[in-house]
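Section 3.1: Structural characterization of target chains.
Under the original work plan, the team committed to producing a structural model for every single-chain target entering the pipeline before any wet-lab resources were allocated. The record below documents one such target. The sequence was received from the expression subgroup and is listed exactly as submitted; it comprises 123 residues.
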Amino acid sequence: MADAKKRHGCLTAWLVLMIVANSASALFYVLRSETIRRSLPNAPGWALPVLIIFALFNLVCAVAVLQWKKWGFWGFCASAVASLVVNLWLGVGMGIVGAVIGVLLLYGVLHIGKENKGWPRLE
């Protein structure tokens, strides 16, 4: 059955990029936590652990979409909304842009291609 589901090259590339980027983000948050805390001195103590959880959740969602699971896409959407709220709370504008653009690009690459369109193949 997996042979019948051929993925469009752009979708594969975007999912691999999301896996790498979210892994790097989680690792960055863990390894540079003190630097981040110093750069955001008014941030509540819960903010950094929540951002780490979001990055790990996005990693799980990217792997789920790679395995043709529709819940992975909806997980990205939920994570983007939650990230938007947290980043607004922290006053970090780039996080807002990244979350929204990431979901829009994923939606777009799931809908490109003719016979290799990803969205109809999600279970």
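The chain has one domain: 7-121.
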